[in-house]
Write a structure and sequence with these properties.
The structure holds two protein chains of two kinds. By secondary structure, chain A is an alpha/beta fold. Chain A is built from 16 helices and eight strands. An eight-stranded mixed beta sheet of chain A has the order 3-4-2-5-1-6-7-8, sandwiched between helices. In chain A, helix 7 crosses helix 12, helix 8 packs antiparallel against helix 12 and helix 13 packs parallel to helix 15. Chain B is built from 13 helices and eight strands. The chains are: A alpha/beta, B alpha/beta. At the A-B interface, helix 6, helix 8, helix 9, helix 10 and helix 11 of A face helix 3, helix 4, helix 5, helix 6 and helix 7 of B.
Chain lengths: ~350, ~300
């Protein structure tokens, strides 16, 4: 399984928050490093999971991890969203003065940390920068925690619209000698800006205008980057891995997302259902007759019934996914571990579990 | 007016807890709305209803009537703008234009502010259209995204001191810091990472709003005391299960201890071994009613 780990250059783990993306990204990276590849796993704040699991101390720094089973290289880094964005601005601004001006804008300070899409952009920016420098054979990106997995793919476009010529133009004063059409257009935008001003006040508008004037110098660079990143995402050596947990609503969402991934022209190579079944259940005889005479027996029946019902949801989901991909082997189910994944040895063990293919249904 | 924010790391059961709290509030006689934030509805799939969007959908949940609604920054801003501008044509120019729509969507902190403005639009602020509710339960963003949301008004209050926006951000900030109106709940699982992240989140919420959030420890096993003595021969075949629940409950107790050592008060909710959303919510609401909430 996971033959693509030998050939892929980029693997992107997507899925909604709390499904175990980070741990799986680390395990997939570990598997590839075991096979001799030089691997970098990138994860993003604020979840800090990889940081805890892989004992990463400083954010932003790439740290190389050692384990006897690794034949290649295994490195990991936490992406510091604010730092990455600032670095991008410094490079794109062209001059240190211009860079400083934008870094000082108070709206920018809000933007680089809280803006819709900025975290996703920085994740992709970091991915691209590492891809370009060719220090690694495979880069695995653990995507930022979003409520819905689909947000990740839409984010860069959202951000790119902000920087496209159209928006920035609004805040520029009309130059003398402009033709009539552009004057009329400007009147229209003036009305919109007036409306916005009555909602927010002149001070906010001033900050906003300042912001757009300052980013003018780097908007072409940002758009270039967004285009280049998109090219990378649809490249034949880039693969997506969808991670989901095992309840009805999440499986429904995953089925929807897998359609969206394909629609966007991306390669969805694996769907991993995490914590799909408990390891203890496999060790108990199938169909064991239990009457429910005691507390323990009743507990057991409750648990077994719970997992059996979930298998029903799974069958509906699997049919849908396999139909979409025309590939029976796309889904992998992983067990619910009896303990927290807390260090590199645990990651190695999870990797073995993935290699063995999880559970076959 | 009472506002309850439910947050926590992704995957801890935040939405189920929020729904259960809404049911429990409705049961206690309050006119309640359950609000989710984001671009797409989770409750739509969860409650198996045709649509959940900005306009509240009436719902019969566990024999209680309540409204459920999905609030996006854009919709909140649109409603507020309509209320203030009152001019249809300007409104259309503003919101139907692709470029201005993009601007609104990404203009730093505007969507965040619009959402918080809507949540806090009732008394004492009384801004915008009336909201006929006694209680709002917000199934809020996860961890980092939620603290960023809470920080938006204070951050903007510094950047924008004057004008309508300056006034709005200050009054929104004041409501968020009012412990007679707002309650904050951080949901966590009795596992190491969710607890660490949950406690960090609780601290960052307290840092911003100066109200201590309450921790909710979800999915706790309830062990029957003395069950081991009564078990007989079946235990042999069920040994893997016995090992499992013993080790799990051991770890869970450790995590609970860790939580109790923190400066935040907490209460626990059981692991409901049901797959149907309504049954899970009913059991959790029951537990909240029995005193989970009061015990805090």
């Amino acid at each position: 399984m996971f033959k693509i780990l030998n050939t892929a250059r980029v693997l992107i783990c997507v899925g909604s928050g709390g499904v175990g993306k980070t741990t799986l990204a680390a395990s997939l990276g570990f598997m590839a490093a075991k096979q001799g590849r030089r691997v970098l796993v990138l994860t993003i704040d604020p979840s800090q999971r990889l940081k805890t699991t892989l004992n990463l101390s400083e954010t932003g720094q790439i740290s190389k991890l050692n384990h006897p089973e690794i034949k290649g290289e295994f490195s990991a880094a936490v992406i510091d969203a604010k730092k990455t964005f600032d670095e991008f601005v410094e490079k794109a601004a062209g001059s240190p003065e211009l860079a400083q001006k934008i870094l000082n804008n108070r709206l920018y300070q809000q933007l680089s940390t809280t803006l819709n899409g900025s975290q996703e952009f920085t994740a992709l920016e970091k991915l691209y920068a590492n891809y370009e420098c060719k220090d690694f054979d495979l880069i695995i990106l653990d995507t930022p925690p979003t409520k819905h997995a689909i947000d990740f793919l839409n984010a860069p476009q959202k951000l790119s619209v902000l920087f496209n010529e159209g928006v920035a133009k609004w805040f520029r004063k009309p130059k003398k000698g402009r033709n009539l059409i552009s004057k009329i257009m400007h009147t229209g935008t003036l009305q919109v800006l007036k409306a916005l001003e009555s909602l927010t006040g002149s001070e906010f508008m001033h900050e906003l205008a300042d912001f757009f004037e300052n980013i003018e110098s780097w908007q072409s660079k940002l758009e270039e980057r967004v285009t280049a990143v998109h090219r990378l995402l649809v490249h034949s050596d880039t693969h997506f891995c969808l991670v989901t947990s095992f309840d009805q609503a999440k499986l429904k969402e995953a089925a929807y997302f897998s359609k969206e991934i394909r629609k966007g022209g991306y390669r969805l190579t694996a769907v991993i259902i995490n914590r799909a079944f408990p390891t203890w259940l496999a060790r108990i005889k199938t169909g064991l007759e239990v009457k429910g005479d005691s507390w323990l027996e009743r507990q057991f029946l409750d648990f077994r019934g719970y997992y059996q019902t979930r298998d029903q949801f799974y069958k509906v989901f699997a049919k849908d996914i396999i139909q979409q991909s025309q590939e029976a082997g796309i889904i992998h189910q992983l067990p619910e571990f009896d303990r927290d994944i807390a260090n590199l040895d645990d990651v190695a063990e999870l990797a073995i579990c993935i290699e063995q293919g999880g559970r076959k249904i | 007016m009472e506002i309850n924010f439910i947050t926590g790391k992704g995957g801890v059961g935040k939405s189920a807890v929020a729904a259960a709290m809404a049911v429990q509030k409705a049961k206690s006689g309050m006119k309640t709305i359950l609000v989710e934030l984001g671009d797409q509805s989770f409750f739509q799939d969860y409650f198996l209803v045709p649509t959940v969007n900005y306009k509240p959908t009436g719902l019969q949940l566990c024999k209680q009537s309540l409204d459920v609604s999905l609030w996006t920054g854009q919709e909140c801003l649109k409603e507020y703008a309509m209320h203030i501008l009152k001019i249809q044509s300007l409104y259309h120019l503003f919101f139907e234009n692709a470029v201005s729509r993009a601007l609104i969507n990404v203009a730093p902190a505007l969507p965040e502010l619009a959402i918080l403005g809507k949540i806090t639009s009732g008394p004492p602020r009384n801004v915008g259209p009336k909201m006929p509710y006694d209680c709002i339960v917000v199934d809020a963003y996860a961890s980092g995204h939620f603290s960023a949301l809470l920080r938006a008004p204070a951050g903007l209050a510094q950047a924008v001191r004057f004008g309508p926006m300056g006034e709005q951000v200050r009054s929104i900030d004041a409501v968020l810091k009012d412990n007679k109106i707002c309650n904050y709940y951080v949901v966590a699982l009795p596992e190491e990472l969710p607890i660490i992240e949950g406690l960090e989140l609780a601290q960052s919420i307290e840092d911003v709003v100066r109200i201590k959030p309450k921790m909710i420890l979800n999915k706790m096993l309830s062990m029957h005391s003395g069950w081991q003595k009564k078990e007989n021969k079946t235990t042999q075949e069920l040994q893997p299960f016995v090992d499992y629940i013993e080790s799990l409950s051991g770890r869970q107790k450790q995590m609970l201890k860790r939580l109790n050592e923190s400066s935040f008060s907490s209460f626990t909710l059981p692991w409901v071994l049901k797959n149907e959303a309504e049954k899970v919510i009913e059991a959790l609401a029951q537990k909240l009613d029995e005193g989970g909430l009061q015990n805090v």
